[in-house]
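Please go through the protein record below and explain what the tokens say about the fold. Record follows.
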Amino acid sequence: MSETVPPGVAVSALVRACHPVPAAAVTVFAGAMAVAAGRGVAGSALVVAAVGAGQLSVGWSNDRIDAVRDRVAGRRDKPLATGAVRPRTVAAAAVTALVLCVPLSLASGLLAGAVHLLGVAAAWAYNGWLKRTVLSWLPYALAFGLLPAFVTLGLPGAPWPYPWVTAAAALLGTGAHFANVLPDLDEDRAAGVLGLPQRLGRTASGLLAVVLTSAATVLLVVGPTGPVRAAGWLALALTIVLTTAALAAPRSRLPFLAAMAAAAVDVLLLVTTTGPA
């Protein structure tokens, strides 16, 4: 980056390099689960701080690790590729966020903190290596699957969440992985990033994204004891419509849009069902 770049421009570039939209979405999601689970104001704030720090570290490390590839590919949407921010600045930010994530996570308890840090470590492993392998889905399944546990293990008595909540969160995370790569799938292949979605192709990955997120919806609706609520029936009906639409047009953008819609339904259901077993 040129020495003449104004500090404000560099700060803006640093913010864009952290993948702010998904980072904020996951952080808000975790905070909402914490509130719904009864962590209280202080406990929910700790969850938000820990998850936010973890997400920042993951986003910055992703762009720093991919800086050379993004520059070669001419990615104008990547601040590191355009020279808007120094690589060492992004690297320092990633490490700082990761260091802060440790005490913030452990503030919820030793077990809760260890669970969250395991999820963050999985995300770093994805950035550094696993995204290029057939196991690219595993960090998503692990990180998302452990998030409800981080929330509930911070409650008195450190209870684990219901198993179906953990399974649904893992399915949601895996589905999100397949959906997330669809827009850049061809570019990833050209750059040699051959995770499982890139190996399976656009059609199969799009359908898998819908199936996985829909399966999460089913678990979240039928998992709780007692009769299915009206909202549950509505979620199931929406899931059927989305899945049918995706299956009917597998080569269109419908699988991606359907997966995103199903994921939104899953997030709402997770927020209302996350709690100790």
About this structure: The radius of gyration is 19 Å.
